[in-house]
Write a structure and sequence with these properties.
With 362 residues, the protein is mostly beta strands. It contains six helices and 19 strands. A twelve-stranded antiparallel beta sheet has the order 5-4-3-2-1-12-11-10-9-8-7-6. Strands 15-14-19 form a three-stranded antiparallel beta sheet, with no helix packed on it. A two-stranded antiparallel sheet has the order 13-16. A hairpin with a 5-residue loop joins strand 7 and strand 8.
Length: 362
C-alpha cells in the first residue's frame, strides 16, 4: 500500500494531526515489546538511534537541508525567519572528540570538542530557528524530558493506541497536560510495532524520521522532516552517514578560548537550564484599538519562537491556528503575534551563562 493511502486511512487514528508522512522499515528490531510500557519503548528507540554514546562507532554525517518559511503574520518584506538551503556536517569519534559545522544563509558555526576543551566559532551568537529544529531532530529524537520522568513535578501518564494499515502496525504513545492558561498541550510518539520511532508531535510541531538504514548496528533515518501540523513543511533534510576515515586531531580543537556553557549548537531545554522568564509584555495597540477588553486570545492557537541569549523573542511563527488552511487569519491572530514580538525575557541560563531556548505562546 502506498504512503499516501496509508496517510488517508490513519487520519482518524492519529489525533493532534500527528499523521505519518512516510513509513520506515523494520531494521532487525525485536517486536516483542510490551505495548503498555511507554518508557521501555522510549528507551529502546533512544538506544537504537543514538549514535553518540560511549563505545559507539566513529562516524561522519553530512546533512543537506532546506529551511522553509513559516506563517509569521508579517508582510513578506518583513519576514524574520531565515530560510534557504543549508548544510550540516559532523565528525564524531567519541563523546570527548567531535566536530560539528553548520551553514544556513549568512549563519555559519563550528563547534568542536577535544580532550582539552569544547570551543565554538559562529558568525552570530544567535542560532536560527530552523537550525535549532534540525539539531533537535538529529540529537534528541527522544528527549531527556521524556526518558526521565523524575524531571517532572507530577506523574506522567501515557495513553496507548494501536492501528494496523496495509498489514503494518503502528503504536502511538500520547499525553496531555492542562497548563495554567487552561490550554491543553500535547506530546505524542509514533512507532512501528518493531519499536522503530517514526514520528513525534510536540504541540503540533511534528518531526518525522523515515527511510531508515543501518550503521554500526544503529538505526539511521536518511530523511528528516519538521512540520507545523502535517500540512506545512518547515524543514526537510537528507542525511548520509559513513565511516570518518583518517581525521586530523587538530580538526577537533579550534583556536581561542573555551566556549561558555550557553554557547553551543546543542539545543538546550527546560530540564537542563534555568528557564527564560518573561519580564515585560507590551501590546503594540492602543486602548482604543483593543477596545475596553483584550480580544479573545484564540484558544488553541500556538506560536513558536526562539528566546535568544539577550532575552528577545525571535522568528515568531504560527504552528497552529484555529482557522481553515488558506483562509485569512482573524485580526485577533495578527494582534497576538504582534504582541508576542514585544515580549522581553530574562534569558535562560545554564551554568551561569545565558543561552538560547525555544519558546511557545499558547
Amino acid at each position: 500500500m502506498r504512503t499516501r493511502e496509508i496517510l488517508r486511512i490513519l487520519c482518524l487514528f492519529l489525533s493532534c494531526e500527528a499523521l505519518l508522512p512516510a513509513t520506515a522499515q523494520p531494521s532487525g528490531a525485536d517486536s516483542k515489546i510490551d505495548p503498555k510500557d511507554a518508557l521501555g519503548w522510549f528507551e529502546r528507540a533512544n538506544n537504537q538511534m543514538n549514535l553518540r554514546t560511549l563505545g559507539s562507532a566513529p562516524f561522519h554525517m553530512k546533512v543537506r537541508f532546506h529551511a522553509l518559511p513559516g506563517v509569521e503574520l508579517l508582510p513578506k518584506k518583513k519576514s524574520e525567519i531565515i530560510v534557504g538551503d543549508g548544510e550540516y556536517e559532523e565528525t564524531w569519534v567519541s563523546p570527548q572528540q567531535w566536530r560539528r559545522e553548520v551553514t544556513l544563509g549568512s549563519y555559519h558555526a563550528v563547534e568542536t570538542h577535544s580532550d582539552r576543551a569544547r570551543k565554538m566559532e559562529a558568525s552570530s551568537d544567535y542560532e536560527p530557528s530552523r537550525v535549532f529544529m534540525l539539531m533537535d531532530a538529529l540529537l534528541n529524537p527522544i528527549s531527556r524530558g521524556t526518558l526521565s520522568p523524575e524531571l517532572h513535578d507530577h506523574r506522567v501518564r501515557w495513553s496507548t493506541d494501536r492501528s494496523t494499515v496495509g498489514g503494518q502496525t503502528f503504536v502511538r504513545f500520547s499525553k496531555s497536560d492542562n497548563i495554567s492558561t487552561g490550554v491543553t498541550t500535547g506530546t505524542a510518539y509514533i512507532f512501528l510495532s518493531s519499536g522503530i520511532l517514526m514520528q513525534s508531535n510536540e504541540n503540533d510541531l511534528v518531526t518525522t524520521w523515515a527511510d531508515d538504514t543501518q550503521f554500526a548496528g544503529k538505526v539511521v533515518p536518511r530523511s528528516v522532516t519538521v512540520q507545523a501540523g502535517t500540512k506545512r513543511d518547515l524543514l526537510t533534510a537528507e542525511v548520509e552517514v559513513d565511516e570518518p576515515g583518517a581525521v586530523d586531531p587538530a580538526a577537533f580543537d579550534l583556536p581561542g578560548e573555551d566556549a561558555d556553557a550557553g554557547m553551543t549548537l546543542r539545543p538546550l531545554h527546560w530540564y537542563e537550564v534555568r528557564p527564560a522568564e518573561l519580564t515585560h509584555s507590551e501590546s503594540t495597540r492602543t486602548t482604543a484599538q483593543r477596545g475596553s477588553q483584550s480580544p479573545d486570545p484564540l484558544p488553541g492557537m500556538i506560536l513558536h519562537g526562539i528566546v535568544d541569549r539577550h532575552g528577545a523573542l525571535r522568528e515568531v511563527e504560527v504552528i497552529y491556528g484555529p482557522w481553515k488552511d488558506g483562509s485569512t487569519p482573524p485580526d485577533s491572530a495578527q494582534h497576538l503575534a504582534e504582541d508576542a514580538r514585544q515580549y522581553k525575557f530574562r534569558p535562560a541560563v545554564i551554568d551561569g551563562s545565558p543561552c538560547e531556548t525555544a519558546f511557545e505562546v499558547l
